[in-house]
Each structure stands twice: as structure tokens, then as C-alpha cells.
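Exercise 7b. C-alpha cells:
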């Protein structure tokens, strides 16, 4: 029978250890509320003994997020009384609180970090569990650096802390040392022994990604009996990070046939959660990151687009809507083949014959080379321009004049009056605006908003370089919202101000284009 796997999210503790990713209390609350929507089973909200600020944040999360929910709230303590008291006093407000403590078991930790004997460390752990247990029924014990520990000493420790009252045993691969097969064997043996001692004790794993194997090790542990996985959103965390929650959850769900296990995660909240964590922590998600990267569901090669249009399962194992994204994204680029371009033109109900299409396709390749990504409104403009040049417009419904085109732009960046002047055209009409703003991009977008008659709000603005050196091509991506629908638009240029303006215009035109696209019934 399929097993439920508990998901323990440590974005607010291990994830927050990333340099520069520190959140204030309001931001932590926002992340915690989102993790609740995501339906994680346990939130590790922080390390209360580390600072008064962290203590208050954990306490507020327990009070505001954990008090009306069955979701567990925990926080980290070292195996010392003062740390355990801090955790207790912060998490006790939650409906379902837990104390999590950590103490090393590897020779390196015991001898070099603590300069104590193994027996002394074991006794410290047992006493700490007994003390925590006197405060609250749920206690998790983490055997830090477990994967580099002597197995029989690791087991001796686990047996003793279970006897002292630990309800969850967490086996961390603290330095990302483990390899899947070996780690899986270790988890299999531990699980077998633990369940013989007390079948109610949950066995958990916490894997780091130093060798890029955190997700693989976590999944191998599940395959070998682990009941619980510790993860972070987008895989953030100490050094190379932790196992990414979205990868583990989607692997278990997509390959349920193999793992025979499931989680209670609300998968439709995965992308939302990733975006919130990335923007609040200021940590960009790698574009090709599994599940949450910008390109994770974008198909651009001609061969793939052709295959997908014939049958989606040819190149798609997860439907993007499963994780909360819009439907499949076929990005038209210079690599897109005829099939994808023909299909996009057809979806816009533009009726051209095969001979005309061949000519338009040549124009398309030229445009794609210059513009990098081609949008639906570009196709309208492309086709109509071609037909106009060939005097074939007479029987053709005209749309290209409905789209905005950037004519000219001047932006002045200075500390007192950052200002922008723009000229935009739409068919035969021409518009100008000059505005000041809080910065050059604010001035530019205020000017564009003044002349572009499309109701939209910018939700996200991102700029990155796509080539190296000082002539780097800058890529701007904006996400806008219009009448409850989200649109993503991009533009690439050596002049990042121009790319910013073109991204804005691409977004506006994507909204306009919808008027001309027949709605599906
Ligand atoms: O990596 C680690 O060992 C940890 C423990 C606190 C679980 O983060
Ligand atoms: Zn860790």
C-alpha cells in the first residue's frame, strides 16, 4: 500500500542560513503562511537561541500560523538546556509543537568539534532528550553528520535517544557526503532496527547538496523506508543547499509507480511558494532548475516542439498546471521549426496558404535572430507586413495596427530627477510622454503607462545578462497582471533600458492579442 511521506520544510532555518538571505519577522511570517498553503507537515521556523529576533519570529509563527492548524511547528536547539528552553518557549503556542535538537555522531564531530568521548556525547544527547520530553511530547533528535559516522555508534545513539523519548529520528547527510546506494542501505538497516524497537518512531532524512546528490539521496532513503524528508524551497540552504522540496515531491508523485509513496503537498502552490521565497530572500532560481526554474517547462527546440504538438507525452512528464503554472510554454525562437510556427499562426486564426507561410517563415527566422523570442503579436505584424508588401491585404482582417511599437526612448539617471521621455506608435498614431520617477526604470514605466492604454500591473521585474563582457546582452523579464490573469514578457538588448521598455510593450501587446484570438469553448 502506498505510504505517506511527511514533508518537513526547513526553508526558514537551514534555508535562511544562506548568506544575505536573512528575512525580517514580517517576511518570515509571509513565507510561513505560504508554507501552510503548500500543506507541508512540519515547518522548522528558525533557531531561537541564535538571537532575540529569531526567537520572536519563531514565536509569532507558532502563534499566528501554527495555532489554528494541525501542521507542526518546530525550531532547532543544540543539545543544551538553554537552547531547548528557547525552542520550548517559542513553539509552545502552536497547536502541534515539537522540539528539534541536534548533536553530532561522527568521530570528526565527537572528537574534533566537542573534544569528548563517544560515551560522554551519547549521555549528553540522552539527557537533552529527557529534558525536552519533560516539556513537550514531540521531540526530534538529529544525529549530525550521520553519513560519516560509525554505524554501530550511530545505532547505539539512536536506540538510546528513542529510549529517552525521541519520537522522530533525523539522519542528516550534513556535508553532502553520501551516495544514493550506500545511503539507501544505511537507511534500510536503521529503519529495520528502529521499527523493531518502536514502530511509531518516524525515520527522517536531511540531505545536503555538496555533490549534487541531495534529491537522489533523499529519494533513495524513501525507497528504503524513510518516513519523512527534510527539504527547502528551491533547494536553498547551507553551502550548496538542501534537497529541494519541489523536486522530491514531484519525483514521488510523478514516479509513484516506482516509489509507491505520496505526500500531502498542495502541488498547485509550488510555483507560488518558489517565487515568494526567491523574491523575499533575493535568491534567483537557476533558469534550468528542475520544476521551479524559468525554463523547466519551456520547449524551444524545433524537434521537441514538433513532437509535443503531435503528442504532449513525447517530451513532457509533468503537466505545468500541476505545479501551478499556466499551460505548456512553446517559446518561438530561431530554433523553432515550421510545425511550431505554423501551429502558432493557426492558433491566432490567421489564414495563409502554404506558399505564403514559407515566405513568412523566412521573415520569422530573421526576426527571431534579432529579437530572440517571438510573441503572438509579432506574428500578426509579420504576416500582415508580408501580405501588405505583396498587395494581399484586401481580404484580410487587419490587426497589426492595434499593437504598440517603441519608436524612441531617452532616460536620464540622476539622483534628484531620474526622468524618461518615450515615443510609442500604434498604427498611424504616435504618442509621447515625459515623466520623472524614483529611479530610471520607474520613470520609464510611468511614461509608458501614461501612453499605453492597457490595464496592467507589474508584479515582478527581473534583469539578467545573457552574454559575458561589457557588451553583454541584457535580458529583462517582467510579470504583469491584468484582469486576474498573469502574463510574462521578455526582451533582450545590449541596452538594458531599451530591453526594459520592450518587455513592457511585449506584455501590453500580449494582452491586446487576446482580443483577436478565438476563445476555446
Ligand atoms: O545539516 C544538518 O546536519 C542540519 C541539522 C541541524 C539537521 O542542518
Ligand atoms: Zn542542514
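Sequence design result:
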Amino acid at each position: 500500500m502506498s505510504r505517506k511521506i511527511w514533508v518537513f520544510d526547513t526553508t526558514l532555518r537551514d534555508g535562511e542560513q544562506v548568506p544575505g538571505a536573512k528575512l525580517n519577522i514580517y517576511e518570515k511570517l509571509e513565507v510561513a503562511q505560504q508554507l501552510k498553503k503548500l500543506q507541508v507537515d512540519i515547518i522548522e521556523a528558525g533557531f531561537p537561541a541564535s538571537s532575540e529576533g529569531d526567537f520572536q519570529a519563531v514565536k509569532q509563527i507558532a502563534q499566528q500560523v501554527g495555532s489554528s492548524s494541525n501542521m507542526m511547528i518546530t525550531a532547532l536547539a543544540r543539545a543544551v538546556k538553554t537552547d531547548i528552553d528557547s525552542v520550548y518557549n517559542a513553539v509552545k503556542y502552536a497547536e502541534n509543537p515539537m522540539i528539534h535538537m541536534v548533536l553530532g555522531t561522527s568521530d570528526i564531530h565527537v572528537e574534533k568539534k566537542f573534544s569528548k568521548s563517544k560515551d560522554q556525547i551519547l549521555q549528553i544527547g540522552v539527557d537533552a532528550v529527557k529534558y525536552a520530553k519533560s516539556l513537550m511530547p514531540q521531540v526530534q533528535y538529529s544525529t549530525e553528520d550521520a553519513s560519516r559516522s560509525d554505524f554501530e555508534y550511530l545505532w547505539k545513539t539512536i536506540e538510546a535517544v528513542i529510549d529517552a523519548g525521541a519520537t522522530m529520528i533525523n539522519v542528516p547527510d550534513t556535508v553532502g557526503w553520501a551516495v544514493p546506494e550506500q545511503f539507501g542501505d544505511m537507511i534500510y538497516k536503521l529503519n529495520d532496527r528502529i521499527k523493531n524497537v518502536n514502530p511509531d518512531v518516524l525515520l527522517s532524512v536531511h540531505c545536503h547538496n555538496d555533490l549534487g546528490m541531495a534529491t537522489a539521496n533523499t529519494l533513495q532513503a524513501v525507497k528504503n523506508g524513510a518516513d519523512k524528508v527534510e527539504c527547502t524551497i528551491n533547494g536553498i540552504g547551507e553551502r550548496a543547499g538542501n534537497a529541494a522540496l519541489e523536486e522530491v515531491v514531484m519525483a514521488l508523485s510523478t514516479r509513484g509507480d516506482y516509489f509507491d509513496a505520496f505526500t500531502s503537498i498542495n502541488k498547485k502552490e509550488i510555483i507560488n511558494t518558489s517565487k515568494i521565497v526567491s523574491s523575499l530572500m533575493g535568491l534567483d532560481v537557476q533558469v534550468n532548475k528542475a520544476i521551479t526554474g524559468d525554463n523547466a517547462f519551456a520547449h524551444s527546440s524545433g524537434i521537441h516542439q514538433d513532437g509535443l504538438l503531435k503528442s504532449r507525452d513525447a517530451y513532457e512528464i509533468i503537466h505545468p498546471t500541476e505545479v501551478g503554472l499556466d499551460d505548456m510554454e512553446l517559446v518561438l525562437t530561431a530554433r523553432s521549426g515550421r510545425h511550431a510556427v505554423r501551429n502558432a499562426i493557426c492558433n491566432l486564426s490567421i489564414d495563409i496558404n502554404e506558399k505564403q507561410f514559407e515566405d513568412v517563415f523566412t521573415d520569422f527566422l530573421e526576426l527571431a535572430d534579432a529579437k530572440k523570442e517571438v510573441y503572438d503579436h509579432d506574428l500578426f505584424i509579420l504576416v500582415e507586413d508580408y501580405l501588405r508588401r505583396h498587395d494581399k491585404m484586401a481580404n484580410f482582417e487587419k490587426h497589426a495596427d492595434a499593437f504598440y511599437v517603441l519608436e524612441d526612448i531617452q532616460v536620464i539617471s540622476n539622483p534628484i530627477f531620474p526622468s524618461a521621455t518615450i515615443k510609442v506608435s500604434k498604427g498611424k498614431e504616435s504618442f509621447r510622454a515625459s515623466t520623472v520617477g524614483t529611479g530610471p526604470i520607474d520613470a520609464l514605466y510611468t511614461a509608458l503607462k501614461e501612453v499605453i492604454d492597457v490595464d496592467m500591473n507589474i508584479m515582478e521585474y527581473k534583469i539578467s545578462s545573457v552574454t559575458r563582457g561589457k557588451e553583454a546582452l541584457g535580458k529583462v523579464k517582467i510579470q504583469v497582471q491584468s484582469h486576474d490573469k498573469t502574463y510574462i514578457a521578455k526582451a533582450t538588448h545590449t541596452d538594458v533600458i531599451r530591453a526594459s521598455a520592450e518587455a513592457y510593450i511585449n506584455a501590453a501587446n500580449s494582452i491586446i492579442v487576446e482580443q483577436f484570438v478565438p476563445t476555446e469553448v
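Instructor comment: The two ends are 40 Å apart (CA to CA). The mean pLDDT is 93.
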